[in-house]
User: Fold this.
Amino acid sequence: MLNGIPVSPGIVIGKVLLLDSRISAVPKYKINKDKIVREIIRFTRAISKTKRELIEIQRKFIDKVGKTHAAIFDAHLLMLEDSSLIEETIEQIRDKQFNVEFVFSRILGKATKSFSDIDDEYIKERAADINDVGRRVLKNLLARKHIDLSNLKERVVLVSHDVSPSDTAQMDKNKVIGFATEMGGRTSHTAIMARTLEIPAVVGVKDITQKVITGDTIIIDGVKGAVIVNPSSSILEKYLKKRADIKLLERRLSRLKNVRADTLDGQKIQLAANIESQDEVHSIIAHGANGIGLYRTEFLYLNRNDIPSEEEQFNAYKFVTQKINPQNVVIRTLDLGGDKFISKLGTPKEMNSFLGLRAIRFCLKQPDIFKTQLRAILRASHYGNVSIMFPMISGLSEMREAKVIVETAKNELDRKNLPYDRNIKIGAMIEVPSAALIADMLAKEADFFSIGTNDLIQYSFAVDRVNEKISYLYRPNHPAVYRLIKMIVDAANEADIPVSICGEMAGVPASVLALLGLGLFRFSMASVIIPEIKKLVRHVNTNDARKVAKHVLKLSTGKEADRYLISRIKKIISRAEIEVYG
Ligand code: PEP
Ligand code: MG
Assistant:
């Protein structure tokens, strides 16, 4: 059993498809006699590919700096011609019957070490050469075969070092039934997508790519964060029962679809949905969401070689707006950057991508791209109830500048006589600490606030939200987070503008209890979580929640707050559900 960070609930049992591994993650497995030839062919193909690459690099090098310095590549190529490395690898595949990458990496390691142990600069350099060439061969052996995730033939559980948000966006959820990765955090966009697509997932599972091979049986427990490889029959039985329990609970919760999410004392609570694509509209309706609190439009821009036109965007936004009408759709303008890249827009990879030219900063620098999107949103607003929201606002001037561009977009539509909602509301995401600190001033410029705790926590604690190594510092229930949220809610109430929360905290029962106590009554989350949160809310009295929040604000550590909130929530949710949902 391996452990990681649970990011998308549910239990799946299936066959592994190992997507890729880093060079350090060389798999080791026995091969049958009849697979020996196939392993040797894989090896010779990797060698030929490496040769072709080296020749190409050499050619470019000669073009750049001339022939004299390019001789090193001849030496490298020679190593791939006749080398004891190659012969020994083939021999050992035959004798020991292990997979080629394992055999080759061991031989390479030994050869490099024996050369580098010799006290001679020239020989030491040759060790570096062998290592260099050897790693190229290994890379080609381990190269991620391009697997089209939208077109898999069988149902699989993906295992990979990392899965990007754009990979996730392509997944066919009927085929990819679960996944486990070595990298990632609970609020990475890959995790968020998994929840949206209702694919159980665990991230941050150390070295999992070294511990499984394609075809292994695997259990993903997206509630507890456990991953079990080739389980015994008793473990399998236990998880089959657990899976059935979850299904039963989901069926029971689905009966709440049409009931209101009022608290015990009658406070109306809005539970809206977060979406990443227009395809999710049906799931939102099925889960009984009150509108869309966050439409992450950047996913329209990923996995393609061009920028979506105004018309294409208009059609997507209009479709969602009409389906959700008369309920509100909050369309967030482009939030690229961080863990969401798109090469076509020329966003350079930055050292600190989450702190870089992303979201509203990028849009203000590219007013044409921004205006195209704004025109599309405005045009869609004619067909229902739409609001515009800007991501990553860090201060007043960004908010003002963005609003000026909205006015320009409106004028352009006026000139073409295209209709739009003239009273469209414009809101700010509060997800940068500086914005939280001046929320009272921003409230004068914004028609509403939506608190993006995923980023707010990341920036407040200086903890990268996608880095599993420091995920222990990423603590949504830390009193510091609640103090910031309280500032934002108080400022919004003072200015009499609506405030909601659309970060992942909005879908975590223990956090929801404290948030209700701080006076937050509008939540937006992955639609799959809505029934569970609705059930909770209906068992809460806002007076009790206020007492809980007051207590949390005075605690000194995140751990204390976690313990306290979980003990309070246990009193509200029945034991059975805690057991299932964790
Ligand atoms: C957030 O930061 O909390 C948020 C909802 O936006 P995203 O997760 O897309 O950054
Ligand atoms: Mg954000």
Summary: The chain has three domains: 1-22+147-233, 24-141, 267-581. The mean pLDDT is 89. The chain is about 50% helix and 15% strand. Residues 267-581 form a domain with the TIM Barrel fold (CATH 3.20.20.60).
